[in-house]
Amino acid sequence: MAASSLPKLSVTIEPLGDHVLVMPIEAEQITSFGIVIPDTAKGEKPQQGIILALGKGGIPDNNGKVVNPHDFLKVGDRVLFGKYAGDEVKLKDKDNKNVEVKVLNLNSILGLVK
What we know:
Helix content is about 5%, strand content about 40%.
């Protein structure tokens, strides 16, 4: 999912501190016969998402210096996070469709997906 294809939310959310706003994305699962397994049959929560917004706070490194998240993350990055990490928030997009996003702590992000 490219950053340009992300839904435009009806509100602007700016995460505070070391929080990150992420839109979870479902990993498409296809059998060897080409049958697509719907999300409802999988029963698994998504563990990847696209960053929609970053807070201005950081996390301390090993030396105690606070690292700015904008040094290594940006809006549109695809990230990996824990299955039950963060808080789910239901919002509306500009077309009045329901959109579910997650607000994660920066340390809940496990890595970048490239």
